[in-house]
Write a sequence for this structure.
C-alpha cells in the first residue's frame, strides 16, 4: 500500500520517531540513479532525525531482483552448498557409469575384437558406445519423467517451485547441460578405451586390469560417499535440534486467525462457547516471524530498539508462558517484560513497579517478568528484548485452543465462522502447522541431504560391485592357486578387502574433512547449533569403510569358498 493510504486509514504506525524499521518500495526513474539515491540517504536521515549518538538510523536500498539473496529469504551460502551436493551427485553418477563400463572390459573385449575382424575401425567402435550411452540416457530420461509426474506434489513441496517453473524455457538450459555432461563424459571415455582394444583379443583372453582408470574412479566415489554421509550427520543433528527445541510456550491444539470484530466481547463469548473450543485469547502478534519494533529510553537516557506487542489478560496463561516474578497484566497501563528486556534496559534490580517509555511518553508500569523465550524464528534469531502492553479488546490475532480431534474440529470451526461472521474474512490456521512451515527451510535441506546420501550410496555400491566382479574374474586363477597352496577363505577375503582399502581409506578421510568444512559453513546461519564433536565424524567414516568392506566380503564370499579346481580346469 502507499504511505498516503496507510495514513488516511490509520493503518500502521509511521514516523521517524516511531517504531524501529519499515519495509517500503520505491521505483527509480532511471536504474542508473541507484548509486546517486543511496549516496543521499545519510544526509536525509540527519535532516529528519538530527544528531543522536545513542541510536543509529539508516536507510538501505536493495534492488528487487536481488531481494531474495540480500533480503534474508535465501543466501548464496545455501546456493553454493546445494550446488556442491548436486555437483557431487552428477560427477559420481557419471564416473560410476564409466567405472562399470571399464570393469566390463574383460567380458566385452572378445566381442570388440570380432567387430574389428569384420572391418570395424576405432571410430566405429567409438560410435557404438556413444550410441549405447545415448540410448541409456533416453531410457533414464523417460523414467525420470514418469517419476516426476508420479511424485509431482512431493517434488514441488521439496523444491518450493512448480515443475513448469523448473523446466521452463528460462531454466531448461540447466537440465540440458546436465544431460550433455553425462552423455559426453559417460560415452566418450569408455568409447575411447574400448576403441583401442586390439583385434588379437579374438584369439586370447583379455586380462588387463586397467587399474589406472578404475582406482581413481573408485577413489572419487568413496570421497563422495564419505562427504555426503558426513554432511548428512551434521544436517540431521542440527535439524533435529531446531525442530525439537523448546519455544517456551505450548502451541499444541492452538489455531490462529487475523481479524477485527465490531463487537469484540460478543465475538469472544461466541467463539469461546463453541462446543469444540477449549479457551480463547487475543493479541497483536504470535511468536513466529518476529514482532513489531519499538524504541524506548533506558535508565541512562539512551534510545534502545526493542520488540513490542499488545495482548489481552488471557494471552500469557493461554500459551503457558512462564512468569519469573510479578504477575500478569490486568488493566490498561500495565506492562509485562522478559529477562532480556531488563538486561538491555539496565533494570535487573527491582524491576516491578518501574515505568517504561520513550523520553517523556510513558507506555506503562512493569507488573511482571517473563522467563526468556524466542519471539521469532529460534533457528535464526536469538532471544530478543520484549515488552507487552495491555489490550482490552478481543481483536487482531485471535487464538483458540481446540479439543480433540484437532483437524476435524479445525474444519468445523472454519465452516461455522463463515456463517457466524460472514462480514469478516476470518480463516483459522493451525499454530503447529505454521511452525512446521517456518521450519521448512531446514527440513527441506535435510530431506535433500537424505535423498543425496541414499542416491550416492546406491550408485557407489553399484560401481564397487562392478569393480569387484571384474577383479574376481580377472584374478580367479590367482585365487585358486593361492587356495591350492594352503590359503583359506579368510585370507582370500582379506586380500581382496585390503586391495580396496588402500583406495578407500584416503578417499574417506578427504571426504570426511570436506563434510566437516561444508557442515560448519551451513551451521553458521543458525544462532544456536547442536553439538557435533569430531568423534561423530570419525564414527561416520568408520561406518562408510564398514559398508565398503562388507560389500567386498559379500561379493567375494562365493569365490573365496569355491573349489579351486573349478577355476583351474578351464585354463
Amino acid at each position: 500500500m502507499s504511505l498516503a493510504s496507510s495514513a488516511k486509514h490509520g493503518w500502521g504506525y509511521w514516523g521517524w520517531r516511531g517504531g524501529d524499521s519499515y519495509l517500503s518500495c520505491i521505483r527509480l526513474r532511471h536504474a542508473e540513479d541507484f548509486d546517486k539515491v543511496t549516496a543521499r540517504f545519510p544526509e536525509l536521515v540527519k535532516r529528519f532525525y538530527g544528531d543522536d549518538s545513542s541510536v543509529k538510523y539508516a536507510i538501505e536500498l536493495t534492488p528487487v531482483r536481488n531481494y531474495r539473496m540480500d533480503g534474508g529469504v535465501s543466501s548464496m551460502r545455501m546456493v553454493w552448498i546445494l550446488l556442491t551436493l548436486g555437483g557431487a551427485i552428477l560427477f559420481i553418477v557419471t564416473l560410476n557409469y564409466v567405472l562399470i563400463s571399464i570393469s566390463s572390459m574383460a567380458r566385452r573385449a572378445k566381442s570388440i575384437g570380432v567387430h574389428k575382424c569384420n572391418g570395424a575401425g576405432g571410430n566405429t567402435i567409438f560410435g557404438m558406445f556413444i550410441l549405447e550411452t545415448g540410448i541409456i540416457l533416453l531410457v533414464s530420461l523417460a523414467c525420470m519423467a514418469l517419476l516426476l509426474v508420479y511424485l509431482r506434489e512431493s517434488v514441488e513441496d521439496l523444491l518450493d517451485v512448480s515443475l513448469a517453473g523448473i523446466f521452463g524455457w528460462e531454466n531448461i538450459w540447466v537440465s540440458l547441460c546436465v544431460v550433455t555432461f553425462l552423455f559426453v563424459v559417460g560415452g566418450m571415455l569408455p568409447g575411447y578405451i574400448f576403441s583401442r582394444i586390439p583385434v588379437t583379443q579374438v584369439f586370447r583372453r583379455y586380462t588387463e586390469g586397467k587399474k589406472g582408470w578404475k582406482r581413481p574412479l573408485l577413489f572419487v566415489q568413496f570421497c563422495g560417499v564419505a562427504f555426503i554421509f558426513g554432511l548428512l550427520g551434521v544436517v540431521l543433528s542440527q535439524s533435529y535440534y531446531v525442530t525439537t527445541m523448546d519455544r517456551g510456550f505450548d502451541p499444541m491444539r492452538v489455531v490462529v486467525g487475523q481479524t477485527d470484530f465490531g463487537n469484540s466481547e460478543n465475538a469472544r463469548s461466541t467463539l469461546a462457547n463453541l462446543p469444540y473450543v477449549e479457551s480463547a485469547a487475543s493479541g497483536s502478534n504470535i511468536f513466529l516471524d518476529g514482532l513489531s519494533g519499538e524504541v524506548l529510553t533506558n535508565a541512562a537516557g539512551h534510545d534502545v530498539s526493542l520488540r513490542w506487542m499488545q495482548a489481552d489478560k488471557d494471552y500469557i496463561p493461554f500459551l503457558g508462558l512462564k512468569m519469573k516474578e510479578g504477575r500478569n497484566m490486568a488493566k490498561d497501563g500495565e506492562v509485562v517484560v522478559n529477562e532480556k528486556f531488563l538486561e538491555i534496559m539496565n533494570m535487573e534490580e527491582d524491576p516491578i513497579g518501574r515505568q517504561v517509555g520513550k523520553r517523556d511518553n510513558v507506555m506503562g508500569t512493569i507488573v511482571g517478568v517473563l522467563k526468556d523465550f524466542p519471539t521469532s524464528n529460534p533457528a535464526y534469531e536469538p532471544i530478543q528484548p520484549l515488552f507487552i502492553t495491555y489490550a482490552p479488546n478481543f481483536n487482531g490475532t485471535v487464538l483458540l485452543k481446540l479439543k480433540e480431534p484437532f483437524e476435524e474440529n479445525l474444519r468445523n470451526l472454519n465452516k461455522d465462522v463463515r456463517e457466524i461472521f460472514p462480514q469478516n474474512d476470518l480463516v483459522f490456521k493451525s499454530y503447529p502447522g505454521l511452525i512446521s512451515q517456518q521450519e521448512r527451510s531446514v527440513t527441506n535441506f535435510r530431506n535433500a541431504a537424505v535423498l543425496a546420501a541414499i542416491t550416492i550410496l546406491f550408485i557407489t555400491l553399484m560401481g564397487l560391485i562392478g569393480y569387484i566382479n571384474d577383479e574376481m574374474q580377472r584374478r580367479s586363477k590367482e585365487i585358486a592357486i593361492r587356495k591350492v597352496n594352503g590359503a583359506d577363505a579368510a585370507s582370500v577375503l582379506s586380500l581382496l578387502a585390503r586391495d580396496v582399502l588402500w583406495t578407500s581409506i584416503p578417499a574417506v578421510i578427504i571426504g570426511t574433512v570436506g563434510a566437516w568444512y561444508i557442515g560448519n559453513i551451513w551451521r553458521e546461519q543458525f544462532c544456536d547449533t547442536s553439538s557435533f564433536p569430531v568423534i561423530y565424524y570419525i564414527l561416520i567414516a568408520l561406518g562408510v569403510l564398514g559398508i565398503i568392506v562388507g560389500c567386498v566380503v559379500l561379493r567375494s564370499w562365493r569365490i573365496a569358498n569355491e573349489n579351486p579346481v573349478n577355476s583351474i580346469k578351464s585354463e
